[in-house]
Structure formats: structure tokens, C-alpha cells
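Run log, item B.
One chain of 507 residues. Sequence copied directly from the ordering sheet:
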Amino acid sequence: MTTEFTFLGHAGFLIGTDDEILLIDPWLSDSGAFFGSWHQWPPNSHLLDGVLQRCHNRALNIFLSHAHQDHADAATLRALSAHPRCTVFIPEYKDKYLRDTLRAMRLRTVELAEGDRAGTQMRMRVFIDDGGINHDAALFVSTPDFTFFNQNDCKIFDRLATLKQELGEIDYYSVQFSGANWHPACFEMPEQQRQAVSRKKVLAKFLNVRSGVATLAPRFLVPAAGPCFFPFLDPALSLGSGTIFVHQEELDRYLTQKGIGNMLYPRPGEPVGEQSSRVPIRAPTADQVAAWRATHPDRWEQGEDTFSPARFAQVLQRRLDSIAGIALPPDTPSIAFNWGPDDADWLLVDLAGKRLVAARQAPVPCIVVKADPRYFALMCGEARWQDIALSLRASLLRVPDVYNTVANIFLFADASNLASSLEHNFSRTQERIVIEHLGQRYEIDRYCPHQGGDLAYASIDETSHLVCPRHSWRFDLQAGGQCAASGMGIGAVRLGPACRAAAEPPA
């Protein structure tokens, strides 16, 4: 039997032989992810019954790349859990949230360490990015008929050249191409600035896709892992223009202009292969979004308002207590939380001072987070703060408007790993390397201060900005390696003219 290969929508794939089925990140429910804010485009919940039938009388293996709700969907997993020969494979993350969640659902769960192999007719190998608040993984699958490298949301672009040498020929390559972040959509700024920031982020994402294709040289690219649509939020987020949530048409135009033409655009439920559609999936129209909204409930509005300011204060204080022994930079922004119009509807977290203040006025630098009381009620419960943030239901103001890693970790980390995430951020190796640009040698930090991308494999653009291969942060070599958008830097020092024989990048 020829190995089956089916696109399930969003980031989901099905690979099947006579004896076993492998599902990758199946999201086949219609209730939405991140508290009902995100929905698959095109909708794909109608595929669930057929997937269950295809799994009948075959061993069922499921691979989940990470814990985000659009990749590890509880409703889909519950439907699959009744299968008598079901095993869920996950990366062996230091954080055990995903493992513990699956075991609580009584799913047989197997953790795979970096480079581990599993499977019989379909061999799996996992590559892990596990640092701080980032827990994600790429998967390589070798079948009797093809190979598939599913990078997904995992931003290991700095490792692709090495992986290509290990993995050999790749038939199909799938990678995220659309945004999946609350910035800039949820941040207060002029609309013109928001669109400019979005364009920069989209271009950075497209550059990474292009780089991945150039490095891995796959027979076919299958763009996936987005975008979603957001029927209960600002309609502009769903329509694919002026935001980071771009659709396949925009990616197709970019790649075609760059001379890349091996893209496949299968629809949910269709086979992946040479006969797959070469026509990108169009963004939903305003009428299609409205029609969905009219026939589906808004889960957010169904939630109860159980918010208690006193309980929220306790939650915040516990988080501060958990990092009491970690010295934070004195210029770390305070974070102000606001849930109403009155002076009493504010709580201020002084991160550097490790104290909680009932005050409306936040000193600069600061981040102001405004949301419905239900938002903060969720922050008091069992939900992960990063999942709540990805509901896109809050409004944020940064003064000044620069990214701060410590504040971001505080807002995204679980209480159980907040301290370890901060310690990981502060303990990154200070290894220095020497690079060459336009006949000059520069000494720089090897690892990006944002999330640890290996700058030994960074590119340098025509304006002498070194570009991180993971998130495309730009560091100006002519200004000491500073990143204008964040105020962070890589300590670039000009050493003088380059030698004739350039050194190889470090191993």
C-alpha cells in the first residue's frame, strides 16, 4: 500500500500505512482555541469522523509539537482517546505541563528526547527548542515512500544547515508562515505604525520561510500552521491585510517573486503530493466571517465573571515571591493591570522592587494591560497565562514602546517555571565570536539576547544590520550592535580589517 499523506488543516497532517496512522497536531474541533478566539481557516471540524474511521483497526500514534491550544486541542484528543491502541508522542520538555495534561486525560504518553527515534514503518525523529518560556519542536518523518520535515512553529532556522546534513533528501517541508502573536494587534499605537510593524514582521517571517527552503532544498513546500481567522474579534484580523495574520496568497506572491515555485496548497482533507493544488487558499471574506459568527457561539461571552481583585493580588504576590531571590535590572518596566474605570480597578506590579502597589499611576518605564474582568479572572485560575494572552482580548500600552524580556517572561511564564525562565534568560552563555562584514571584523555575543538564536548563522543586510536567524531581530553593527526596537544589544566591537582567509563558523 502506498503511504497516505493528508493535510488536515491548520498545522495538522495524517500519515498512514496498512498498519498504523500518525496524526500530527490534529485540531479538528469547531469550538476555537485560546478561549474561542482562534478558528481554523478553512474550517475542518467535519473531518473528525472520517479521521476516526481511518484509524479503525490500525495503531494510532499522535505527535504533538507543543502545548499551544491550536496544536494540542483537548476536544480532538478526547475524541481520539477511545482508540484502543493510541499513543501520544511529545518532546521531552523540561516543563512537564503538556505531559501532565495528557496523562490527566488518561492518554498513553511517551516523551522523545532530542534526536530520539520512534515508530516502525514510519520513523519519527524530534528536534527540540526548549529554553525559558519557549517549548517547541520540529519533526522528521521517514516513510516507505517519502520524507517529511515538519518545522511547524519551531524557529530553529539557525540549525537547519546542520539538520540538512543529518537528514539528507527531504520530499516535503512544512513551516509556519503567518503570525501567531499578540504584538502588534493588541498594543496601543497609531494605526499607521501598527501596519508598518506588521509589514516588518511579515517580511521577517517570509524571509525565514525562504531561507528554510534554500537550506533544506525540499521537493515541495507545504505552508501550514496558520493563519486562523478570528470571527469574534476585530474583523481586520481575519481578512489577511495590514496585520501579521497573512494568508497564503501573500506568501505565494512573495515566494513567486523570489523564484520559488514548488509550493503545494492542499485543502483540509486533501492528499499531499504532486497532484495537490498549486492555488493558494484565499483569505475569508467579511461575509464568510459574519456567517460563521452568526452560527457559532462566542465562548468568551459565555464565560462567567468571577473576578476578585483580592484573589488577583494574591496570585501576583505569589509570582513575585517565587522570584524574590532573583535580582532584576533596575530599569525593568512595572506592569499595571486595569479592569475598570475607577481608581480601585488597578494593580501595579513593581518588578524590580518585587512589590505590589494599588495605584493608578505607573512610573516609566511601564506596561499597562487593560482587559475585561473575565480576562483577569482567568489569570487567577488554572489557565496558562500565555494561552490567555493569545486570546487577543487585552489591550497593552508600553511606555516607552520597546520590548523587555523580563516583563515578557513575567506575563507569559507559568507560575511553576517563572523563576527558572528568568534564570535561564540571565544565565545564557556569554560566548563571543568574530564575524566579518565588508572587509571588517566584529566581535559580538554569539547568542541573541531575545531568545537565544545562534548568531554564528545570522545574515547581515545592506545597512550593516545583523539579522537573527530565529526572530529576525536586527542589530546595528555600526552602533555597537544595538537593536533599536528593543534597546538590547550584542556588544558589537569593531576589531579592524578582516584577514584574507575567513574562519569557518563555530561548531
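Observations after the first pass:
- Residues 309-419 form a domain with the Nonspecific Lipid-transfer Protein; Chain A fold (CATH 3.30.1050.10).
- The mean pLDDT is 94.
Flagged for discussion on Thursday.
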